[in-house]
Amino acid sequence: MNAPLLAMIDANLKAPLLVLFIVVLVLLALWDGVWKVVAMWKSARNNQLAWFICLAIFNTAGILPILYILLFQNTPARAPARAEPGKISGLPPSA
């Protein structure tokens, strides 16, 4: 029983299996692409060049971008904007 797997599958099933395989590959590529773009955007905003390069090079079906977003993204605490002396923040400038 050394016959290849595709040779054992009936000819009527080969076309639907091929279509299913292509659909799964397209969905997987879209899944990876969305997560990759979000993770790369966040790493660029946080000035994390090493993460940006790793996310750009490695295709991990969304696993590496999800791990970056959930575990390794260090969002620096931003200081609140300071108002200039003599001005009240949040009010429009007086004419």
| Strands, count | 0
What's the gyration radius in Å?
25 Å
* Proportion of helical residues: 55-70%
Biggest sheet descriptor: none
Model regions low in confidence, pLDDT < 50 over at least 5 residues: none
Q: What's the end-to-end separation, in Å?
A: 90 Å
Structure commentary:
Helix content is 61%, strand content 0%. The chain has 95 residues and is mainly alpha-helical. It has a domain at 35-73. Helix 2 (11-45) runs antiparallel to helix 3 (49-57) and helix 2 (11-45) runs parallel beside helix 4. The longest helix is centred in the first third of the chain and has 35 residues, at 11-45. The chain starts with a helix and ends in a 23-residue tail after the last helix. 9% of the residues are buried. The mean pLDDT is 77.
Annotation keywords:
95 residues, mainly alpha, elongated
Concise account of the structure shown:
This protein is mostly helical and 95 residues long. It has four helices and no strands. α2 packs parallel to α4.
Write the topology of this structure.
Elements: H1 5-8, H2 11-45, H3 49-57, H4 63-72
